[in-house]
Design goal:
Helix content: 40-55%
Distance between the termini: 40 Å
Oligomer: single chain
Shape: globular
Radius of gyration: 19 Å
Length: about 300
């Protein structure tokens, strides 16, 4: 039986930009260190939360290098940036990303076949990537943009047993699917990470290895507490998860603008500039919602004995 080295709570890292729409590297460094100080076990950089589909090739590579440097080997860093449509270009992107110092390069499931293409093409393309980049450690992310492609049981069983993947970010939001997947990868080195807060605790109880979702940008320390204590204090863990689940509706409220606003109010100053949302979407009511969330986080931290 193999043991995975990927586990715990990992943020899907947002990208700070300057007001004139350049990557704000001092804020990238500060945010990376904030994650580490708050108990993150790893960082998924250059992902959808990082606005990877709206970054240039150079920006994606420079961002990954900056996060690796800021992390300083204290925690693992994985990255994607795998956004091209053309298969040969994807391989070029993945090869270059593997040279940035990240621990694993994350494939995007919807890049491996078009929406109208089936499992055969998906499998052919991903096997070719494995063959052409044999020294690279790969993860896989069921990114919902531009369309959602969930992995089949057959593929996951093969990939786990053949040691082709070290990490899967599951966005199924389905306990039925998660139960099957936990059984399929049992005893292998493939780590299953749940992106969905509402099912995260139950997925851990079924054998999942961690959480990798957007709400870690708001309160990674609370997810880290939950992961550390869910077996020893199941009643309190369920209550904490209920809080986190309700708070996770913030994901649908002008994210990532609201995440940047939250961070700016709680120790990591950055502009609200993004390339995917107009900052004006975070209106006065949205700002009041974030202020309320910050107060509720503080109350829960006090109850759990966490540092403010």
């Amino acid at each position: 039986m193999k043991d995975t080295v990927y586990r715990g709570c990992w943020p899907t890292m947002i990208t700070p930009f300057t007001p004139d729409d350049r990557i704000d590297y001092p804020a990238v460094e500060a945010l990376t260190k904030w994650y580490i100080d708050r108990g993150a076990d790893g960082i998924f950089a250059v992902c959808q939360s990082s606005e990877m589909f709206f970054l240039s090739e150079e920006e994606k590579l420079d961002l990954a290098k900056a996060v690796v440097e800021a992390a300083g080997g204290k925690i693992k860093v994985i990255a994607s940036g795998h956004t091209a449509d053309e298969h040969a270009k994807q391989i070029d992107q993945l090869g270059k990303m593997s040279e940035t110092g990240v621990d694993a390069v994350v494939l995007v499931s919807n890049r491996l076949a078009q929406e109208n293409e089936g499992e055969e093409i998906f499998r052919k393309n991903i096997e070719d990537i494995f063959a052409q980049l044999p020294e690279v450690a790969f993860g896989l992310y069921e990114c919902p943009y531009p369309y959602l492609r969930l992995l089949s049981d057959e593929f996951l069983r093969w990939a786990a047993k053949e040691d082709k993947l070290v990490f899967l970010k599951d966005v199924s939001c389905s306990l039925e699917i998660q139960k099957r997947r936990a059984e399929l990868v049992k005893g292998t080195g493939l780590a299953l990470f749940n992106a969905n807060t509402a099912t995260v605790l139950d997925s851990w109880l079924m054998g999942y290895h961690g959480y990798n979702g957007v709400m870690a940008n708001f309160h990674i320390d609370l997810y880290a507490w939950l992961f550390k204590h869910y077996l020893e204090d199941p009643v309190l863990a369920r209550e904490v998860m209920d809080h986190l689940t309700v708070w996770a509706v913030a994901e649908a409220r002008s994210y990532p603008v609201n995440a940047k606003y939250h961070r700016s109010l709680t120790g990591v100053p950055m502009s609200l500039t993004t390339r995917t949302k107009d900052p004006s979407l975070l209106n006065e009511n949205g700002r009041h919602e974030i202020a309320s969330l910050i107060r509720l986080e503080a109350q829960l931290r006090a109850r759990l004995g966490l540092e403010p």
